[in-house]
Amino acid sequence: MADAAAAAAVPGDAPAGTTVLDSLGEDITRIVYPVSACMLLVVLLVSLLSSPSSPSPLSASIAAATGGVSGGGDDDIPTALITALTFVVAVTAATFLLALLFYLRCTPCLRAYLGFSALAVLLVLGGQVALLLLSRLRFPLDAVSFALLLPNAAGALALAALAPASVPIALHQAALVAVAVLTAFWFTLLPEWTTWALLVAMAIYDLAAVLLPGGPLRVLLELAIQRNEEIPALVYEARPVDPRHGRNWRLWREGTQPGADLDARSTVEVIGEVLGRNLDANSGNSSSSHDNEADGDVSNSRPRVTLVAAFSSSDSTVAQAGEVSALPEHRVAVAEMSVPLIQPRPQRSGEEAVEDEDGIGLSSSGAIKLGLGDFIFYSVLVGRAAMYDYMTVYACYLAIIAGLGITLLLLAFFRKALPALPVSIALGVVFYVLTRTLLEEFVVQCSTNLLMF
Amino acid sequence: MTLAAGLGYALIALGPAFSLFAGVVARKPFLVLTVLSSTLFWLISLIVLSGIWRGFLPIKSGAWWAYAILILTSVALQEGTRLVFWRLYKKMEEMLDAFADRISKPRLSLTDKMLISLAGGLGHGVAHAVFFCLSLLTPAFGRATFYIETCSKMPFFLASALIALGFLVIHTFSMIIAFNAYDERKKSDQVFVPVIHLAAAVMTLVNLAPGGCLIGTPLLLVMAALTLQHCWRVACQRLTEHRHQQHNSN
């Protein structure tokens, strides 16, 4: 039996042999947990703050703004399509502008812009959400304390989000998730058809922008690859933290397994390996399994695989209203460009230890990076599903996670830049429709009669 | 009846699942992924089922035989899906073993395989509990409670949570029994699992009669205990056999 053979092959190690199962899939779970946390927070916020009996003053103002534009204010399909289209056009323009700035090596501009947008989201949106929560939960907090706490918290989180090297990684990740949650909650305040149209339009845009030769994201990525630089952007990195060292700096995983070319923890490698694509790269490098190919050709080692989703939150409907004075700065493209989903380390000399170079046999660059735009749109979908019923929430959550998994599979298979939004959004929308039309009726019919199987 | 009650019902239905998750599944990331994919799989089977039955709903309240047919078809479909799940699992096991050989690490041990089947079963149980119980619990967080006509002694949410608990245990552990049976080709266990599933599902038909839930729910929990005991026996047996084989071969 296979078990006996396996047991015999590992001499005298019956109880505690670490098998492949121990660490496989770790990098995927490290990205699934924060995505789930973000979705959970948005669902909680939506269910707390969007009771139909008392529409929040914000949604009323947005409704008024939309109504003012479309001259009727009803939430119908043509209005939704027009809004979505406007949004996509704005996002495209913003991304081209960013690409231009990147091309001109205007990195301070980009960084300043990022900082400004993160701070704006945290201060303005965060402040308004906090106010809503305070009034809904009847939490006693006076105005002076609030005025002291809010700017401090917003500033600290913005700093944590933008300067990952100087802040504990947990705080950095929490700040990014906070930004995503706030932005996603705001998007859910749009009327229903508009939200769905927006999601579908962004998914299509993402697909086009990454895969078409003239797409802005593709241009941006190619520039980054050419110059071997990282695009300054708000991306969520799921890098493991080693608590042994007493400081919460990020540590690259050390792949010091003798004779092991592949790190079992990098699921993408596993998938690629299993699908037989890894064989060329490995056979060429198996002899130098420990070499720090510091200057090794990037092309020879694991090729860069990237997943991109970009967005910029230009709430164009509100922008046209003009009355809402606080909002133009969040009309500014909060370009959370999410760049490489799976990013092999760029060749950084100096501070980082040599172990994280790209050579085969060293630490897997299994640190999956997912852009904040993906977080936001996933959470918008789930938040909108929460406005209907919790059954749709669960179904859409599972669909989105499945979409993420499928995207990773495709990534390992195709090994080129892939957008992270389309598959998940498509699956999410399909499951939402199916649940709402088919499943709900069936399950409610069964379980209200206490009939289960 | 407020937050406490709602949380209480949710924990009745899902408490053991949380403990299993935190204690066993969360330690190995692969098992977390298995739980998620298993949940998705069973959700798809539920959607297919509801697609098939959509045309016949809503069922008139007197027609208990319609419900019986519904239960029969649902259980049949789900058992068929279990076989499909088994095939997928076998393929994945091959891939994992090949990968383990490649990086010269030991292959999947017996404990690993049982853990994967536990995670698969947990996914099934969680899917059931979430969709049949948790998604209807939202009103329980409000101010009042709800009784249905045929069950006037227990709040609806409590009955639903207890039944969901029973089914969670049944699904989780019957997956272990089933995978073990398919692996060892034991006919008796292969039959045991669908029979238990069918029996438990038919048991819930009792709930259609007035006052039936007072009989049905405890019986269901008894069946859950039965499944648990059988699974314990099967697992112990398998593990001691395995250890003997190892000793003999060493």
Which features does this protein show?
heterodimer; A: 453 residues; mainly alpha; two-stranded parallel ribbon; 16 helices; 59% helix; B: 250 residues; 77% helix
Low-confidence stretches of chain A: 1-16, 53-59, 68-73, 241-264, 277-365
One letter per element, helices H and strands E, the order of chain B comes to HHHHHHH
Q: What is the overall pLDDT average of chain B? A: 89
Largest sheet of chain A: 2 strands, antiparallel
Account of the protein in words:
The complex is a heterodimer of chains A (453) and B (250). Chain A is mainly α and 453 residues long. Helix content of chain A is 59%, strand content 3%. Chain A contains 16 helices and four strands. In chain A, strands 1-3 form a two-stranded antiparallel ribbon. Chain B has helices spanning 2-23, 29-53, 64-102, 110-132, 156-184, 187-203, 213-249. In chain B, α1 runs antiparallel to α4, α3 packs across α6 (187-203) and α5 runs parallel beside α7 (213-249). In chain B, 44% of the residues are buried. At the A-B interface, α1, α2, α10, α15 and α16 of A face α2, α3, α4, α5 and α6 of B.
SSE arrangement:
The complex is a heterodimer of chains A (453) and B (250).
Chain A: H1 2-9, H2 26-49, H3 57-70, H4 77-103, H5 107-137, H6 143-162, H7 169-187, H8 192-211, H9 216-227, E1 235-238, H10 267-274, H11 279-285, E2 307-308, H12 316-321, H13 328-331, E3 368-371, H14 372-386, H15 390-414, E4 418-419, H16 421-447
Helix pairs in contact in A: 2-7, 2-14, 2-15, 4-8, 4-9, 5-6, 5-7, 6-7, 7-14, 8-9, 8-14, 8-16, 10-15, 14-15, 14-16, 15-16
Chain B: H1 2-23, H2 29-53, H3 64-102, H4 110-132, H5 156-184, H6 187-203, H7 213-249
Helix pairs in contact in B: 1-4, 1-5, 2-3, 2-4, 3-6, 4-5, 5-6, 5-7
